[in-house]
Recover the amino acids of this structure.
């Protein structure tokens, strides 16, 4: 009986401390969260935002100086709440299109597609040589899981992972600066 009570007590404590989902204000580190539960919640939020995108207020801004051939940001708002941003940046030998998704805590998901051309776009007959996709799952603007082009999880302790988190935050700053007076969520 003593061991059963001890087991029950440990189970209750463990259950209470691992009950962290998207947007909670707990100050736990990202390593102590239930990543599977969090990603399921992120997928639901992603689907909800996309299902309502047609009714959101849309703001389109041209972006210069971020790529060789310019770019565009399309922001989606539900009244005053910033929900989504689509960015496309063009270069001579490709383009990068990224969708960013926001909740009241900031960026929670990003999906990026990079198209690489076989020759510069100004040469007749250029075509797409390869496509690279990446999925980024975030908690309060911090990367918690990255699935690379092969849909494999990238090691969160790698330099590549840390650099990618930095690039996502830089992209987020470009979006915020470009939108200017329009309200964006997060820090």
């Amino acid at each position: 009986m003593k061991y059963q009570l001890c087991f029950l007590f440990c189970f209750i404590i463990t259950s209470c401390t691992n009950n962290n989902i998207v947007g909670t204000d707990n100050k736990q580190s990202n390593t102590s969260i239930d990543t599977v539960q969090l990603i399921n919640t992120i997928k639901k939020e992603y689907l909800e935002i996309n299902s309502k995108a047609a009714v959101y207020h849309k703001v389109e801004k041209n972006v210069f100086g971020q790529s060789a051939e310019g770019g565009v940001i399309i922001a989606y708002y539900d009244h005053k709440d910033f929900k989504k941003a689509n960015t496309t940046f063009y270069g001579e030998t490709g383009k990068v299109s990224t969708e960013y998704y926001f909740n009241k805590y900031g960026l929670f998901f990003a999906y990026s597609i990079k198209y690489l051309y076989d020759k510069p776009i100004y040469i007749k007959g250029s075509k797409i040589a390869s496509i690279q996709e990446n999925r980024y799952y975030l908690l309060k603007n911090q990367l918690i899981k990255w699935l690379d082009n092969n849909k494999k999880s990238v090691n969160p302790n790698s330099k590549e992972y840390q650099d990618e988190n930095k690039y996502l935050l830089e992209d987020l700053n470009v979006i915020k600066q470009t939108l200017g007076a329009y309200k964006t969520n997060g820090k």
